[in-house]
Amino acid sequence: MESLQTTSSFLSLNALFDNPLFAGGIGLASLGAAAAFARKGAIVALGAVRRRLLVNVEISKQDPAYPWILAWLSQPREHPGYIASRITRIHNLSVTTTTTNTRGHGTSGPVNASFFLQPGYGRHIVKFGNAYISVNREKHSTANMNTGEPHEIVQLTTLWAYRHAFEGIFAEAHKLAAKANEGKTTVYSARGMEWAPLGDSRKKRPIGSVILDEGVKESIVADVNDFLSRHQWYVDRGIPYRRGYLLFGPPGSGKSSFIQALAGELDFGVAMINLSEMGMTDDKLAYLLTKLPKRCLLLLEDADAAFANRRQRDVDGYSGANVTFSGLLNALDGVAAGEERIAFLTTNHIDRLDPALIRPGRVDMMLRIGEATKYQAAEMWDRFYGDKDEEGMGKERFLRRLEELGLFGTNQDGTPSNRHTSTAAIQGLFLFNKIDMQGAIDMAEGLIPRTFEASDDVTLGEKHTKLRS
Ligand SMILES: Nc1ncnc2c1ncn2[C@@H]1O[C@H](COP(=O)(O)OP(=O)(O)OP(=O)(O)O)[C@@H](O)[C@H]1O
Ligand SMILES: [Mg+2]
Question: Could you tell me which Gene3D superfamilies the record lists for this protein (predicted)?
């Protein structure tokens, strides 16, 4: 009975296949499935072939090489062949404009503009040696949490056989970037939790243009050079390769200028943090110090801010810096502190610093960059008027005038005058009288700091207005 039933169900299945409509449907369906399968197979095979035959390099915007590669891509290239030049034409460009105002006195608005064209978003093809490289520049929809900038990548693809072209490309791009930055100092500042170049790299300041008191500059330069030559010595002894300098003194004595010039001299950049900056916290400071850009002097301006943050809130609710004393000490040499570093700290208020900061490992060398001395005034005169005042007569008169005014700390009769001036003020005076030596001598009275002017504030006030106008 059971076997009979089975036979009959087979019979009905056969009948179904005998139905031309049904059989046709099945046929079509299997054709479709086969086609879909073949398509998928082809995609997989193509992917496999791509993976085996092509090489991909992805550079994200966060990587320092990103701008170099973009600059390299924008290089004009000579293409020997007609076809090559057609293939590698870039149709999609983006532009970066820089303007410089060189029109001088009394005019405004940008005059010189330079346009820097680089490949825009999308796909392009470039040729490097014999290799064709496909370039894909993409902007992602996600953004960097710190800066709000969208993520970007550049992807370079070429045939496996030409993979060594990448080494050549990166070397060339790096050389190009190095050449563009030759003679320049890059200043980095903290943007969010990251270091970013602060504007364009600026021309190196010659170290000779910063005039410190006799021997001061030389002693720092010698110490830094000695430190730089002893890397292996530190490694061999397992000591963190760090050195700290503290420059203190009144405003306008050349502390920041000297550090910038020193960075130029050493071919270093400057990574700058202002400790009194709004939003700078202990965590942020510690994190930034572990991620210092390479070959940079760390510059911590206003080091006293970390010690003076108990002041009252301003009207805007800002209660001073959030960096605390212990936060600064930990960032400088806590367990998480960076292993390699040259740090410069500056302050106008040495009296506010804690002795704990000034111990080897945190600050190894402390120097006062003080008020202008006679030596500095003389050197600055030579830099400004040296070519006109060959005999040195003008310089002598200028120095005598400053002595008369008691600006070097003593009166002419040898008693203390308690009066000093800053190198920044002398520079201001010389800048005002660029080609007029006598004018500089006549206006020397304006170098007297304003705090000493309480009694005769009218006449000196006029001088000041004159100086500044
Ligand atoms: N010793 C110096 N030699 C040459 N230029 C100087 C010197 N001191 C100051 N200047 C000039 O004065 C200006 C201010 O100098 P700078 O910013 O370096 O002073 P600073 O000591 O860092 O002051 P602050 O303590 O207020 O930060 C700059 O333009 C700089 O060129
Ligand atoms: Mg400064």
Answer: P-loop containing nucleotide triphosphate hydrolases
Closest ligand 1 atom number to CA of residue 372: 1
Residue nearest to atom 5 of ligand 1 (CA): 210
Tell me, in angstroms, the distance from the centre of ligand 1 to residue 423's CA.
7
* CB 303 within 8 Å of CB 275: yes
Handedness of CA 213, 215, 216, 217 (dihedral sign): positive
How far, in Å, from the CA of 191 to the mean position of ligand 1? 25
Report how far ligand 1's centroid is from the alpha carbon of 375 (Å): 16
* Torsion, Cα of 26, 28, 30, 36 (10° steps): -150
**CB 372, CB 422: distance < 8 Å:** yes
Residue from 247, 423, 447 to probe ligand 1 pocket by mutation (most atoms less than 8 Å from CB): 423
Q: Which of these, 7, 118, 102, lies nearest to 69 by C-alpha position?
A: 118
CA 343 to centroid of ligand 2, rounded, Å? 15
pLDDT by 10-residue block (mean), the chain, 469 residues: 51 73 83 90 82 87 87 77 75 74 54 76 87 89 76 90 90 90 89 84 92 92 94 92 93 94 93 85 89 91 72 52 80 78 92 83 90 93 91 90 88 84 93 91 86 48 41
Q: Residue whose CA is closest, atom 4 of ligand 1?
A: 210
pTM for the predicted model, two decimal places = 0.74
Contact 166, 156 (CB under 8 A): yes
